[in-house]
Structures are given as C-alpha cells and as structure tokens.
Automatic annotation (TrEMBL):
Its main location: membrane. Keywords: Cell outer membrane, Ion transport, Membrane, Porin, Signal, Transmembrane, Transmembrane beta strand, Transport. It comes from the Bacteria. GO terms for molecular function: porin activity. This is Porin.
C-alpha cells in the first residue's frame, strides 16, 4: 500500500511540473537585422557598398575567344611542323582569356580614394609554339610546345586624389590614348606598356589636364639604376575632341621620345584621330653595352626617328561599327588594320578584323618575327563583357 501511494504521488508530481513548464512563455531569440547590399551610384553603374563600410566596389571583366589565321608577321597567324612529314606549315592561332576586373571608390578628406585591378588568365598557342625543335641528346626532332596557359597582373594601382601608385601601363600610351579601336594596333609599335608607376594627375576642370609619371619599365627596358624613366603630358579636351602631347625620357639610354595627337568628333557617328611620334636613337645603335633590338627603347619602339598613326571609327547604328588604322614609320614599315564590330546582344560583341604589315628596310622584322616582306592575316574575336 505504501509503494502504491508512492508511485501515485510521484506521477502527480511529474504531471504538475510538466504543466508548470508548459505554462511558461516560449523565449525565441530575435533575428539579426538583415543587411542588404546598397547600390552606390557615385562612381557610375555597377558599384555597390561593401557591407559595413563606406567603400564602393564594382566587379567586372570579360571572357574572350580569338581565332586568328594568316602570316605570322600580321600578328594573326601561327606556324606548326607537320608531325608526320616535318613540313613547316600554317595553323590557327587561338587564345581564350578570362579577365577579372575590380574597382573601388571612397570619398575621404584628401579626395577620392580609388583602386583598380585587372588579372588575365590565358590559354592558347603562340605564333611559333607548334614548330618542332631539334633534340641534340637523342638526335631527333621533337614536337613543339603547343597551347599553354599564362596569368598576368595587368593593372593593380591605388589612387588618392591625383596621386597614383602601383602597376599600370605607361602614361606615354594611356594618357595620349591607344592607336585606334582595332585589335592589332601595334603593327607599327607606339610605345612600351607594362610598368610600375608613381604618377600625379592634374585636372583643371575646364578641359585642361596634365600628368607626370615616374616609371620602372619592363623586361629589357627595366631601369638599370635608381633613376626612373619619366613621362610628362598635357591635354586639352573639348566637345569637338582633344589635343594631347606626351614626352618621355628613357633613363637607361638617355634618349627622349614624344608623341602628339589630334582627336576630332566629326559627328555623333564618326570620330577620327591622327598621332605622330618622334624619338632620338643615337644611344640605341652604338656606344652602349646592351643594344636594344632594332634600335628601340622603352618609348621609341618604332623604326627610325619618326612614325605616324591615323584612323577612326564610324557607327552605322547602335549595334555595328567600323574601325580602321593606318601606321607608317621612317623604316618604311606600313601597317593597315580594319574591322567590323557587331553587338549581337548587350555585352556580347563579335569583331572580324583584317591586318596587313609590309616590312620595310629596318627592324620591324626583328620585332614581329615576320618571315616575308608582305604579311596579311585575319582574326575573329568573340567577347562577353560584364
């Protein structure tokens, strides 16, 4: 009887405790407030605020596929060795690229703080990668390298107000502008590109701007002491176009080069440009321990002292444009490039280009590895930009 009473009492106690707990209010943790991405329209389309900061970020880039054919001197073709017969013959030159770009911007008490980066991932064959080479050890020919990949950091700079530091392309080219909207715009080269820089940009706000750039150079054109290469430029921009001039000092060889350019907006559909370059070259040809290939330095990369580039763009409609460039230098090297660019849908462009290079009596053949005087080729480009 005592055991029965004990069991009944225990059950009643458990029911009472359970009922008391059920009567208590259920406590649920408050959710953290959602922090949505906010659009930043201060620096243009595509920017958004990085959550928790005042920094605006934009992410973009492009995916590109190039198909080239023709003479290697036109920059569009490639050569290969037939693996059965050993015959040297032409082949496609192809390259796939993914370029990743980032931009940031933030307003500070010292001005706008900006950054820009661009990294390129490539896979393709070079103009000579398919050619066989001779293996001296095994006394036989071996196949060429074929297609391969590469990664390059093309831009990575910081700018506060007018001061920019980091990896950029030379102001000798960027400030005055590239030589037209053609793919192969360096059939007659107009300057070296890759370099680390310390630059200052000045914008008067009335169309006048200027730049001073201290540059390191690249490859064989890298500075050989603590003295940097120096570039200076001025520009006057109005609604009709612009007039620009740049001067560069090659500290390695103590040579000077300069370019002047006229851009004209003839109409809303037609724009034209004319650019001329002149450079000294006495130290490139004699009296130096290292002689640059073809008498070229970091900035004067054309043949002889002078060179000219001209061309323009014409928009047939919102989707289709025609672009052309003609270039010529004192070494009698003549380059012609023309293309049609068509926007299939917004962000996807197909460009078909024809290129021609007539090698003169000087140095360009060393630069382009041209194997004959007259070179022609073509390239088809597919590009998705985002």
């Amino acid at each position: 009887m005592n055991i029965k009473s004990l069991l009944l009492g225990s059950a009643a106690a458990l029911i009472a405790v359970s009922g008391a707990r059920a009567a208590d209010a259920v406590v649920v943790a408050e959710p953290e407030p959602a922090e949505y991405v906010k659009i930043c329209d201060v620096y243009g389309a595509g920017y958004f605020y990085i959550p928790g900061t005042e920094t605006c970020l934009r992410i973009g880039g492009y995916v590109r596929y190039d198909i080239g054919a023709g003479d290697i001197g036109s920059f569009d073709g490639a050569r290969a060795t037939d693996v059965k017969s050993g015959k040297d013959q032409g082949t496609w030159k192809k390259n796939a690229r993914f370029a990743l770009k980032t931009w940031t911007g933030q307003e500070t008490e010292l001005g706008t703080l900006k950054t820009y980066t661009e990294t390129r991932f490539n896979f393709g064959n070079s103009r000579d990668s398919g050619r066989a080479s001779y293996d001296l050890v095994n006394d036989r020919y071996v196949a060429g390298a074929g297609a391969g990949g590469s990664v390059s950091l093309n831009f990575a700079w910081i700018q506060l107000g007018g001061l920019r530091v980091g990896k950029d392309e030379s102001a000798f080219d960027t400030f005055i502008g590239y030589a037209g909207n053609v793919i192969q715009d360096t059939l007659v080269p107009y300057g070296g590109f890759d370099t680390n820089v310390v630059q200052y940009y000045f914008d008067a706000g009335n169309g006048f701007s200027a730049v001073v750039s201290l540059e390191e150079g690249y490859g064989a054109y890298t500075i050989d002491s603590y003295v940097p290469h120096v570039v200076g430029g001025v520009k006057w921009t109005q609604g009709w176009g612009a007039i620009t001039g740049v001067v560069a000092y090659d500290s390695n060889y103590e040579e000077v080069a300069g370019k002047v350019r006229l851009d004209v907006n003839v109409s809303s559909a037609l724009s034209l440009f004319l650019m001329g370059g002149y450079g000294s070259d006495s130290n490139y040809t004699d009296g130096s321990y290292f002689l640059p290939a073809g008498g070229r330095g970091m900035y004067k990369q054309w043949s002889g002292n002078w060179a000219v580039w001209g061309g323009g763009s014409y928009k047939f409609n919102e989707k289709t444009s025609f672009n052309a460039q003609v270039s010529y230098d004192e070494g009698k090297n003549l380059g012609v490039a023309a293309n049609i660019a068509y926007d299939v849908v917004p962000g996807f462009t197909v460009t078909a280009e024809v290129d021609y290079l007539n090698v003169g009596n000087d140095t360009v053949s060393n630069w382009t590895h041209a194997e004959k005087k007259s070179n022609i080729g073509g390239i088809l480009r597919f590009q998705r930009s985002f």
